[in-house]
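Structure in, sequence out. Go:
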């Protein structure tokens, strides 16, 4: 009888430990997924920055300045050369 109780308690303790290990493993997997998502976002942003040519300095001649006013009131501005051909997705511009 005592041995059965001991075995039962031992089994419960083992199950609790296994449950803790599973929970810890799931937590680590979620953290890894978050890190991977952040890294992918960084790569995406770097790619978009590369696609968008470097902004000329304010002192350069023949500039065009475009101002975007967003629905939330935020204003974004960007300078371009007046003869520069641009093709920009506005959402990409906002994300950068």
């Amino acid at each position: 009888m005592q041995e059965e109780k001991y075995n039962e308690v031992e089994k419960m303790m083992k199950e609790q430990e296994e449950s803790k290990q599973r929970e810890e493993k799931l937590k680590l997997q979620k953290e890894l997924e978050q890190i991977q998502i952040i890294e992918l976002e960084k790569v995406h942003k770097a790619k978009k920055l590369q696609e968008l040519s470097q902004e000329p300095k304010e002192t350069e001649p023949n500039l065009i300045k475009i101002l975007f006013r967003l629905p939330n009131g935020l204003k974004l501005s960007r300078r371009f050369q007046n003869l520069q051909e641009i093709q920009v997705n506005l959402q990409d511009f906002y994300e950068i």
